[in-house]
Amino acid sequence: MGMLQEFKEFAVKGNVIDLAVGVIIGGAFGKIVDSVVSDLIMPVVGMVFGKLDFSNLFLVLGQVPEGTAHTLDALRKAGVPVFAYGSFITVAVNFFILAFIIFIMIQQINRLKREAPAEPEAPAETPEDVQLLREIRDSLKR
Fold first, then answer.
1. pLDDT tens-digit profile of 28-59?
2. Is 111 within the bounds of a domain?
3. H-helix or E-strand containing 82?
4. Of 9, 45, 77, 121, which has the fewest Cβ atoms less than 10 A away?
């Protein structure tokens, strides 16, 4: 029973919940970045480099069965080993775009932190009884 209680305390700590929320948002953000790369950036890059589609760049490493189309999906479905370096290029571009976006976000957050310095706390008001004792002390010194 003790281990279950410890796990419960661990699981409901703020850091664990924050981490779970971060992972969920990160997954969704990754999908957005993947769409930006595959749907917006890669077509432009492909157009500049002669309409290349990086996701379909590969080298065939085995025998291709008769009648199999020479596309990455068809070769994979046929069980032909392929060296899909185009997929790697796409994932690497996704990573660099995601890293750049996160860099910009952190840079802006840090800028906002520098612009809004924390206001110094006002000193706590002295309790009335302490104030009265100080007045008595000062009057006795005179």
1. 888 887 788 778 877 777 777 665 567 778 88
2. yes
3. strand 82-83
4. 121
